[in-house]
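User: Write out your own:

AI:
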Amino acid sequence: MNKRYKGIIAGLFLATLSSMSFADSDPLVGKWKTIDDRTGYSRADVEIRKKPDGTYEGIIVETRSIPGAEKAVICTNCPGALKGKPFLGLPFIWGFKQNPDNPKEFIDGRVLDPIGGKIYKGKARLSSNEKRLTMRGYVGVSVIGRSVTWVKY
């Protein structure tokens, strides 16, 4: 094998690796620590995944109790097929799509409040450094809703 041929193969290999790492660098995908807006405590850790159809979903991977409260483990107030399911592994955000006009914004999603059992419309926005996510659940228009902050780790 001549030196030029080896150089071409090495270049193709590096280009392939670099494009693979770029594809895996979706800033929304990964684990996030949720922060309860009312108490300031972290209630759960969430893993966000990108589905083959391009939408995002988040599942609960760990839960914590608020000091002085019992740790909830079952979604007793969840609607339909989610009722009675364990919190761990529970999909509680789904359908989010990246806004084509703003890549740091995700729209058209649904958010399950696992404590209250209601499903809301949802949208989310990444901070400029992509380490914080502001998740908003709302009814009707987004001014009638609630926002929580998540921290990536």
User: Anything to note?
Assistant: The helical segments are 3-23. The CA atoms of residues 31 and 47 lie 4 Å apart. DSSP finds one helix and eight strands in the chain. The chain has one domain: 26-152.
